[in-house]
Amino acid sequence: MKAAVVLGAGQNPSYGDFPEPICKENEVKVNVIAAALTPLAKARAAGTHYSSGGAYPFVAGADGVGHLDDGTRVFFLLPKPPQGAMAERITVPNGQWLRLPDSIDDLSAASIANAGMSSWAALVQRARIKSGQAVLVNGATGASGQLAVRIARHLGASRVIATGRNEKVLNALGADSVVLLSEDIDAFEAAVAEQFKNGIDIVLDYLWGASARAILLAAAKIQSGTPTRFVQIGSVTGEEVSLPARILRSSGVEMLGSGIGSLSLEQLMLSVSEMLNEASSAQLSLEYSAVPLINVGSVWGLKDGRRYIFTMK
């Protein structure tokens, strides 16, 4: 069968042949329709994500949509290596696939599943959001951040604050307040501190690095009496942050992580199921470009800001 195959460390996937999977007990065979080129898929393929396997060759892709032999439309997550989502066929253990609701089409589901799951799981499973709480999304102009703004609102947030570098996208998100992230990190911290004066219950952080440090410093400086759950989801702008110990001693900040490991597979699957079932009513969608998998080699390394969905045909 054809697949996007990673042959060695540091190599981008290439379109080629890969052995047909053998379906074992407590597994299902999925005829793959589409799989998104997500930051998670890229990081796992590059071997830089903490959940990467490290054995070669393997098929790229962390999640996707397809159908069972009986025609049932499904979403699946984390096929067992060396399998990956970007193949014509895969096998998936029971518990790592779910039926897609009729309210969403295949490619739309593939485009939002991973991105929407990240904030849904962070808000519901980790931050335990309650109606009326205020949410700040750090890194709101990326695909996951854009959905996070809408998901926070859908889950009952009374106020949503969005940060990001792309001013045009930032202003189009429909957030209650926006804070532009520039090279002047002190100005960014001061602007965020103004937002904390009105209380922020939850921070969803997709960036880490300097902006996350500034947010934590602002939270510690403004003694609003409101506990803040800081949920770390992604590290687009840096893997490490140096923090003064006083941030945790002198404030109500609670730091949590949200991802593979801090959440069980059952929690991740529950989150994506809830999110996909609510996608229509929550108006969750992303613009994307559908590309045949045969073009994986020419698309994989592009940095044009577009979201790509690989289709198997």
Structure description:
It is a single chain. This protein has 313 residues and is α/β, with parallel strands linked by helices. It has 2 domains: 128 residues, Medium-chain alcohol dehydrogenases, catalytic domain (Quinone Oxidoreductase, Chain A, domain 1, Alpha-Beta Complex); 144 residues, NAD(P)-binding Rossmann-like Domain (Rossmann fold, 3-Layer(aba) Sandwich). The chain has 9 helices and 16 strands. The longest helix has 21 residues. The radius of gyration is 20 Å and the shape is globular. 45% of the residues are buried.
Chart the SSEs and their pairings:
Elements: E1 2-6, E2 14-17, E3 27-36, H1 39-46, E4 58-59, E5 63-67, E6 73-77, E7 89-93, E8 97-99, H2 106-126, E9 134-138, H3 143-154, E10 159-164, H4 167-171, E11 177-180, H5 185-196, E12 202-205, H6 209-221, E13 228-232, H7 246-249, E14 253-257, H8 265-278, E15 289-292, H9 296-299, E16 308-311
Parallel strand pairs: 9-10, 9-12, 10-11, 12-13, 13-14, 15-16
Antiparallel strand pairs: 1-2, 1-4, 3-5, 3-7, 3-16, 5-6, 6-8
Helix pairs in contact: 2-3, 2-8, 5-6
Protein name: Alcohol dehydrogenase
Organism: Pseudomonas oryzihabitans
Pfam family, one: ADH_zinc_N
Q: In a nutshell, what does this entry contain?
A:
With 313 residues, the chain is of the alpha/beta class. The chain contains 9 helices and 16 strands.
